[in-house]
Amino acid sequence: MARISVFGIGYVGVVSAACLAKDGHTVIAVDVDPGKIKSINDGLSPIVENGLDALIAEVVAAGKLTATNDVQYAIDNSDASFVAVGTPSAPDGSVGLTYVEGVCRNIGAALANKSSFHSVIIRSTIVPGSCEATCIPVLEKASGKVAGTDFGMGYYPEFLRESTAIEDYYDPGLIVFGALDKKTGDFLTALNTGLNCKIHVVDLRTAEMVKYTSNTWRAVKVTFANEIGNIAKASGLDGQTVMEILCSDEKVAMSKYFMRPGFAFGGSCLPKDVRALRYLANSTGTNAHLLNAVIEANEAQIQRAEAMVEASGAAKVGFVGISFKPGTDDLRESPLAELAARLIAKGVEVGIYDPYVFEAYAANNSTAGRGNDVIPDLKDRMVEDLDHLIGDSGAILVGNFYKNTVGSLEKAAQTRPVLDLTRMKRDMVSEGQYQGICW
Ligand SMILES: NC(=O)c1ccc[n+]([C@@H]2O[C@H](COP(=O)([O-])OP(=O)(O)OC[C@H]3O[C@@H](n4cnc5c(N)ncnc54)[C@H](O)[C@@H]3O)[C@@H](O)[C@H]2O)c1
Ligand SMILES: O=c1ccn([C@@H]2O[C@H](COP(=O)(O)OP(=O)(O)O[C@H]3O[C@H](CO)[C@@H](O)[C@H](O)[C@H]3O)[C@@H](O)[C@H]2O)c(=O)[nH]1
């Protein structure tokens, strides 16, 4: 079993730290946010994510996971570090490396004081060449040591999806990494052995590129499915039925994931990663026609939902779901939040039912409301009781699917417009007050 430090206790870091600890490794989580450090050390999850509360309580009680802001302590007491800090878009759409640079500088300074071998493994999403052009030079300068010789260096992207993060951790669709040195490569191979997935060992740049390729492909799939859905609906057809039939053709290895017509994609990764890849393409003189179109079409899908709300004529709209997808409290680049903000700016009153975001506020999580930079007074708009929201709203917008809401929402469609962006019930199609975005 290994001793591992995880830098960045965000959506990725906290899940990998907890799962590594569950697997028997001794894990030190490092962050600059005292709220997150306290949460972990109290045995509590700093984010709302399925199964994570119990997992963290278990591994912290077992003494396998601790959290600190002390970088030197973490480096001295681990043999490898995972870096999972954020890489948000820079204003020009390029990948933002500020946090990655900062943490490499901190790790490098601590490595200067350590004599035994240590591997630094980047897990943040960074464009091809970033390890070589940024991480390695910063680590080498701060440590006075040479990457690949004096300390180990790897790039090992993470593919988990929020809301199914623990499940994805133990059942990955893809494992890929690059390592400068054999020790780091062997460490990552051993860590992944036993999972039911082929391990691809490549160079650092290829591993960096595979991560963007994966997210962009997902964004392309969502956009394609949405466009087919829009066209199908305009032709009087059920877009989801059309796509389900297409996806039944498994002969060409068609996966049904991300092929379900509905609302725009969002979240902390797909939008920023498509932007960063497009920026990279432009900077190499490559035309990224498809990526331009994906961004344009995704924005148009938000406008399409906005037009549905406007057509309802409601002055007060109740949102069912506001996070970027069900099962998480994360609001980063949530298209639902963007839609709500646009309606609010036009004078529409907006109330919100979202059990996951509500839970984050109720638990006083330091991350409650994470990623919301568009909805004013979000906390005050949150409603705990769905029936209360329905009774109080002229129209209901179903943004995220929550199983327990279906009965009430179906009933609500008899008395007021219900605008469905997710399809709460497979047999419902646009009729009367019920309108589905692509069906
Ligand atoms: N969210 C996902 O589902 C997901 C999945 C796969 C990959 N990724 C990628 O993983 C990376 C992290 O994403 P996230 O959503 O977990 O980010 P996040 O913003 O939720 O978490 C990042 C954490 O890093 C901490 N941090 C910043 N600077 C630090 C420093 N110098 N030392 C220690 N901690 C520091 C922050 O306080 C924060 O807690 C990004 O590159 C993202 O693109 C995200
Ligand atoms: O059929 C689908 C599936 C997803 N989405 C939307 O696409 C966005 C992203 O969803 P998802 O990919 O499930 O969530 P993330 O947690 O952002 O995960 C993505 O981004 C992570 C960060 O890089 C990667 O690790 C994952 O592999 C990648 O799926 C959300 O707005 C979803 O509502 C759809 O519209 N239709």
TrEMBL record:
<feature type="binding site">
    <location>
        <begin position="159"/>
        <end position="162"/>
    </location>
    <ligand>
        <name>substrate</name>
    </ligand>
</feature>
<feature type="binding site">
    <location>
        <begin position="258"/>
        <end position="262"/>
    </location>
    <ligand>
        <name>substrate</name>
    </ligand>
</feature>
<feature type="binding site">
    <location>
        <position position="211"/>
    </location>
    <ligand>
        <name>substrate</name>
    </ligand>
</feature>
<feature type="binding site">
    <location>
        <position position="87"/>
    </location>
    <ligand>
        <name>NAD(+)</name>
    </ligand>
</feature>
<feature type="binding site">
    <location>
        <position position="272"/>
    </location>
    <ligand>
        <name>NAD(+)</name>
    </ligand>
</feature>
<keyword id="KW-0520">NAD</keyword>
<comment type="similarity">
    <text>Belongs to the UDP-glucose/GDP-mannose dehydrogenase family.</text>
</comment>
<dbReference type="InterPro" id="IPR008927">
    <property type="entry name" value="6-PGluconate_DH-like_C_sf"/>
</dbReference>
<dbReference type="GO" id="GO:0003979">
    <property type="term" value="F:UDP-glucose 6-dehydrogenase activity"/>
</dbReference>
<dbReference type="Pfam" id="PF00984">
    <property type="entry name" value="UDPG_MGDP_dh"/>
</dbReference>
<dbReference type="GO" id="GO:0051287">
    <property type="term" value="F:NAD binding"/>
</dbReference>
<protein>
    <recommendedName>
        <fullName>UDP-glucose 6-dehydrogenase</fullName>
        <ecNumber>1.1.1.22</ecNumber>
    </recommendedName>
</protein>
<feature type="binding site">
    <location>
        <position position="36"/>
    </location>
    <ligand>
        <name>NAD(+)</name>
    </ligand>
</feature>
<dbReference type="InterPro" id="IPR036220">
    <property type="entry name" value="UDP-Glc/GDP-Man_DH_C_sf"/>
</dbReference>
<dbReference type="InterPro" id="IPR028357">
    <property type="entry name" value="UDPglc_DH_bac"/>
</dbReference>
<dbReference type="InterPro" id="IPR001732">
    <property type="entry name" value="UDP-Glc/GDP-Man_DH_N"/>
</dbReference>
<dbReference type="GO" id="GO:0000271">
    <property type="term" value="P:polysaccharide biosynthetic process"/>
</dbReference>
<feature type="domain" description="UDP-glucose/GDP-mannose dehydrogenase C-terminal">
    <location>
        <begin position="318"/>
        <end position="421"/>
    </location>
</feature>
<dbReference type="InterPro" id="IPR014026">
    <property type="entry name" value="UDP-Glc/GDP-Man_DH_dimer"/>
</dbReference>
<feature type="binding site">
    <location>
        <position position="332"/>
    </location>
    <ligand>
        <name>NAD(+)</name>
    </ligand>
</feature>
<comment type="pathway">
    <text>Nucleotide-sugar biosynthesis; UDP-alpha-D-glucuronate biosynthesis; UDP-alpha-D-glucuronate from UDP-alpha-D-glucose: step 1/1.</text>
</comment>
<feature type="binding site">
    <location>
        <position position="162"/>
    </location>
    <ligand>
        <name>NAD(+)</name>
    </ligand>
</feature>
<feature type="active site" description="Nucleophile">
    <location>
        <position position="269"/>
    </location>
</feature>
<dbReference type="InterPro" id="IPR017476">
    <property type="entry name" value="UDP-Glc/GDP-Man"/>
</dbReference>
<feature type="binding site">
    <location>
        <position position="325"/>
    </location>
    <ligand>
        <name>substrate</name>
    </ligand>
</feature>
<dbReference type="Pfam" id="PF03720">
    <property type="entry name" value="UDPG_MGDP_dh_C"/>
</dbReference>
<feature type="binding site">
    <location>
        <position position="266"/>
    </location>
    <ligand>
        <name>substrate</name>
    </ligand>
</feature>
<dbReference type="InterPro" id="IPR036291">
    <property type="entry name" value="NAD(P)-bd_dom_sf"/>
</dbReference>
<feature type="binding site">
    <location>
        <position position="31"/>
    </location>
    <ligand>
        <name>NAD(+)</name>
    </ligand>
</feature>
<dbReference type="Pfam" id="PF03721">
    <property type="entry name" value="UDPG_MGDP_dh_N"/>
</dbReference>
<dbReference type="InterPro" id="IPR014027">
    <property type="entry name" value="UDP-Glc/GDP-Man_DH_C"/>
</dbReference>
<keyword id="KW-0560">Oxidoreductase</keyword>
<feature type="binding site">
    <location>
        <position position="125"/>
    </location>
    <ligand>
        <name>NAD(+)</name>
    </ligand>
</feature>
